[in-house]
Amino acid sequence: MVEPAEGAVRVVLGVSGGIAAYKACELLRRLTESGHRVQVVPTASALRFVGEATWAALSGRPAATEVWASVHDVPHVRIGQTADLVVVAPATADTLARAAHGLADDLLTNTLLTARCPVVFAPAMHTEMWEHPATQENVATLRRRGCVVVEPAVGRLTGADTGKGRLPDPAEIFEVCRRVLARGAAGVRADLAGRHVVVSAGGTREPLDPVRFLGNRSSGRQGYALARVAVARGARVTLVAANTELPDPAGVDVLRVGTAAQLREAVLKAAADADALVMAAAVADFRPARYAEGKIKKAEGRDPDPVALVRNPDILAEVSADRPRAGQVVVGFAAETDDVLANGRAKLARKGCDLLVVNEVGERRTFGEDTNEAVVLAADGTETAVPHGPKEALADTVWDLVAARLG
Ligand code: CTP
User: Fold this and answer.
1) Whole-angstrom distance between the N-terminal and C-terminal Cα of the chain?
2) Where exactly does CATH 3.40.50.1950 map onto the chain?
3) Would you call 193 helix, strand, or coil by DSSP?
């Protein structure tokens, strides 16, 4: 165990008593390997699942388990006061309830009351407990106060059940923590907490026959970065992903689609109660007019039949013109190869959205890369240039502009 550097970021890892406590070991490992000084604060129930020795060995310091231990150090106040981030993973229904009600009956809840840094909860429990109005109201209370409460993942739960309630992948919870820490002081209050945002990502594929399709080069990375950043800013995020091969980000409801028609249906449904829609997906403008039920074969001595195309509906223009919710902010992306800004301005007017992120694309630019460079054009005439940098930085700028418009 390498001792963290002087001045290292101080993270408190609160662990409450659920079977997913074992997955917090992996989160702890990632936090310490990134050079953070991590103080684990397990509840008494958490220690029944994973013992003190494991937390001590992985963090390189004793776990803090008791309000009544080392009282001269005043641990019930000091641990929270000196933290740069508190992350509670897993957060049980009981821990969420105690945090929402301001109880201070153990070291973890004392720490939550004294912390003035960003706080992230990663709940894990059975679906019934998660969906219970009591839990949902506690989650809403914590979000209203500016905490990030990451939506649980859907999948296999303890025993034979499946449903919503799984702890997201520790690597993805780590990503949320990394994003929240990167926001610094701005991360103390999650500015999209309580908002529902919909992001589309990837590229649609329009089938020609059972083995062929018309597609595009979009990898989905920019849309996924938008989703990740929105979670770290507290939003409930629905990601409509077209043909992507990226891991599901923590806290994101991922809806997988293939064609433009499927993407349209999923986006319209999800956007019905959304505060914002960001169309980062590359949607095919055209699809083959005819789908061949069997594989198209070549006929010797005869030229292939031309492929006739028909227009797909423009989803961005459709939602912009007929907003399912008053005050909804709609953002489009424009991938351009020439006359980038002029085409962007014309497109913003044509589509009727509030913001249009314009970037230059080509075979070796933007697609599949982790960086991007863009100008965000707004319907009110303003322009925000985003210099070449990580796709997450562009995502932050987009959410800054969206948050300003949501008021
Ligand atoms: N878009 C959409 N539905 C379509 C096509 C595009 O919602 N059928 C959205 C994209 O998700 C993106 C924006 O519109 O946010 C701009 O996409 P782009 O392909 O650049 O624009 P087009 O309208 O296709 O314009 P053109 O191909 O003429 O440049």
Assistant:
1) 46
2) 10-185
3) coil
What's the distance, CA 95 to chain centroid? Answer: 23
Q: Which fold has domain 196-406?
A: Rossmann fold (3.40.50)
Atom of ligand 1 nearest to the CA of 335: 20
What atom in ligand 1 is closest to the CA of residue 317? 7
> Ligand 1 mean position to 304 CA, how many Å?
29
- List active site positions: 216
Please provide the size of the chain in residues: 407
| 236-267 confidence digits (pLDDT tens) | 999 999 999 999 999 999 999 999 999 999 99
Q: Does domain 10-185 have CATH number 3.40.50.1950?
A: yes
Q: What angle separates helix 93-100 from helix 107-114, to the nearest 10 degrees?
A: 40
pLDDT digits (tens, 9 = 90+) for 274-298: 999 999 999 999 999 999 999 998 8
Distance (Å) from CA 385 to ligand 1 centroid? 21
Around ligand 1, the residues with Cβ closer than 6 Å are 260, 279, 281, 283, 285, 312, 314-316, 332-335
- Nearest to 219, CA basis, from 233, 196, 201: 201
Q: pTM of the predicted model, to two decimals?
A: 0.93
